[in-house]
Design goal:
The chain is α/β, with parallel strands linked by helices. It folds into two domains: about 10-215 and about 385-390, Rossmann fold; about 230-380, Glycogen Phosphorylase B (Rossmann fold). It has helices spanning about 15, 25-40, 60-70, 80, 90-100, 110-115, 135-140, 155-160, 165-180, 190-200, 245-250, 270-280, 290-300, 315-325, 335-340, 350-365, 370-380, 385-390; strands at about 10, 45-50, 50-55, 105, 125, 145-150, 185, 210, 230-235, 260-265, 285, 305, 330, 345. An eight-stranded mixed β-sheet has the order 4-3-2-1-5-6-7-8, sandwiched between helices. Strand 10, helix 12 (about 270-280) and strand 11 (about 285) form a beta-alpha-beta unit. The protein is globular. The mean pLDDT is about 95. GO terms for molecular function: glycosyltransferase activity. This is Glycosyl transferases group 1. InterPro entries: Glyco_trans_1. It comes from Antarctobacter heliothermus.
Length: about 400
């Protein structure tokens, strides 16, 4: 694939802040942009650290990508050790950034640093919903940069009752700055593009493009062993209120014999669900910290993925499960119909009778390997090649 060779500045602040943690969906997008743009440079990277800003050239960006991929961060330097309250893994990551960067500066010196090192008219790309601050935008204007911002969803404004304290207003400010300052807003779906229009006045919506996310399908490795038996179901994602694990816990006594594997770490503001999990309900197993290959191996042999989330911007787990040929049961959300078509079984989460009925049916109809292979062949997931072909002609 050939793309225009433009100078680009990719914001890598989110990936830095996630050092040492499993990558979320938004993290994976930032990582995909880093990987692709390294092949279609010239590329620079910008990171806001706890002590200021660092600027990476293409060599530094490649070294940073290798660190994210391997998790092999170097020792914390003196500056990180004297910064109080800094997460230990982030301290290691920021120390490595200072070792590999082309330049670094205190916040007040950001504009001079960018003017000194970057070519005029560079395109700044922000995919992480972070670091789109007035200071950064002012510094970018000083070098005549174009600004492209990825908006993954408008969930904080659509379902504020499922958000952490303070995140709704923070996201509102982010969206306002994007609308006022971006030359292009990138959306992962027509649904997100539509949602964006609902929250912004018509005269404040910059040009937008909708480009489905590609799928980096992980090859299954070895599934973890435990006290579960076949049939078992998988639900995947952070245990937070929006993901609606409570529905599955409410239903599970009425799902005879089947086991439920909850793959994901505990999140926030979900104490009632945590309390229920702490009682070790029968045939329910909490499995945090699995890598992608282990999750893929579990999905491949499961009776299906259960995904009763109240709201999703894209929802990668159902896409990944469908690509593996696993049956999928999801809440009836427009984004799934856009991305997955008639592949999943749709059931509104308000209809508990239908969820119970479909889970029991899926448990009884545990698919064979041949059926899974045929199912996987029915679904052609979106590709990163198509995504970047659409996006990078405009950024």
């Amino acid at each position: 694939m050939v793309t225009t060779q433009r100078n680009r500045l990719l914001d890598l602040t989110r990936l830095t802040s996630r050092a040492g943690r499993p990558l979320t969906g938004v993290d994976r997008v930032e990582f995909a942009y880093l990987t692709h743009m390294l092949r279609h440079g010239p590329l620079w990277g910008l990171v806001r650290t706890s002590l200021g800003y660092v600027l990476l050239d293409a060599v530094g960006c490649a070294a940073f990508r290798d660190k994210v991929l391997s998790g092999d961060w170097g020792p914390a330097d003196r500056l990180s050790r004297i910064k109080r309250g800094l997460d230990p893994m982030r301290a290691h990551a920021e120390s490595d950034l200072r070792r590999i960067c082309t330049a670094r500066c205190l916040p007040l010196r950001l504009s001079p640093m960018l003017r000194r090192h970057l070519p005029p008219g560079i395109t700044y790309v922000n995919t992480g919903h972070t670091n789109l601050t007035d200071r950064v935008l002012s510094a970018l204007r000083s070098i005549g940069a174009r600004v492209s911002v990825f908006v993954h969803d408008t969930i904080p404004l659509d379902v504020p009752q499922y958000q952490r304290l303070g995140t709704v207003e923070k996201f509102r400010h982010f969206l306002t700055r994007a609308a006022e300052s971006a030359d292009l807003i990138i959306c992962n779906s027509h649904q997100t593009e539509t949602d964006l229009g609902r929250h912004l006045a018509e005269d404040r919506v910059p040009p937008t493009i909708s480009a489905p996310l590609g799928l980096d399908l992980t090859q299954p490795t070895v599934a973890p062993q435990g006290p579960w038996t076949t049939p078992y179901f998988v639900t995947l994602g952070t245990i937070e209120p929006r993901k609606n694990h409570a529905l599955l816990l409410d239903l599970w006594d009425d799902i005879p014999d089947a086991h439920l594997l909850i793959c994901g770490s505990r999140g926030w503001e979900n104490h009632a669900v945590f309390d229920r999990l702490d009682t070790r309900p029968p045939r329910v197993h909490e499995l945090p910290g699995l890598d992608d290959g282990q999750v893929a191996a579990l999905l491949q042999r499961s009776a299906g993925l259960l995904f009763p989330s109240f709201a999703e911007g894209y929802g990668l787990p159902p896409v990944e499960a469908a690509a593996l040929g696993a049956p999928v049961l999801v809440n009836d959300l427009p984004i799934y119909r856009e991305v997955l078509g008639d592949i999943p079984v749709y059931a509104n989460v308000s209809d508990r009778y239908l969820w119970r009925k479909e889970i029991n049916r899926m448990a009884a109809d545990h698919p064979s390997d041949q059926t899974r292979a045929e199912q996987a062949q029915r679904f052609a997931p979106p590709t990163w090649e198509a995504h970047f072909k659409a996006v990078l002609t405009l950024t």
